[in-house]
Amino acid sequence: MIQETDVLIIGGGIAGALCAYELAKKKIQVTLVTSGKGNSHRAQGGISYQADHQDNTLFKEDILHAGAGLCYERAVDQLVTWGPKYVEEILLNEIKVPFEKCEKGMWKLTKEAAHSASRILYHGDTTGQKIMESIEKKISDNPFINRREVQSVIDLITLSHHSKTPTDIYAPSTCIGAYVLEGDSVVTLLAKETVLATGGVGEVFLHTTNSKEARGDGVAMAYRAG
Q: What is the CATH number of domain 2-38+141-225?
């Protein structure tokens, strides 16, 4: 079976679900494939916001210190510059995640891990669950989002690996969708754009608190695609 969509999103956690939400706002047809609840529902800690509007420099220093020299600095710059803006614009104003507030109605901000300032929005020990519940309310009945739940993606479809035209092996790396296992059959999902949002690789280790879906599917598919 062959099906087509504008954008194929593989992974239905916070990243994948918010990507679907933003695209649907632009009336772009999205297919969202998930293999279970994943890790987002399990996240107990909060999400970084901002201590104040002058927090960027200290925020960056905290991330670089916690990263022990492994951080990609350009990505850190993007995070501290745009992260608080989008948390406020999307999670607070649009999605309306019920983060905790103080008696005066202001957001309660706490300090976690390597943060040197209180900049974390949270909801008890169920922050991830509350974020996902709020997002799902927004996307559950959206006509532009086709949700395919508890399905496994086998591999990305790329011209160099799957085309019947021999010379496509020399073409620039191009992804045109993915093969998805649906029951006992394989569905070919063709897409103009494909987004990988499959989360981490906790299940490659003997002991992990990650969900069973965190097995590195997206990393492996991206590696094979080149």
A: 3.50.50.60
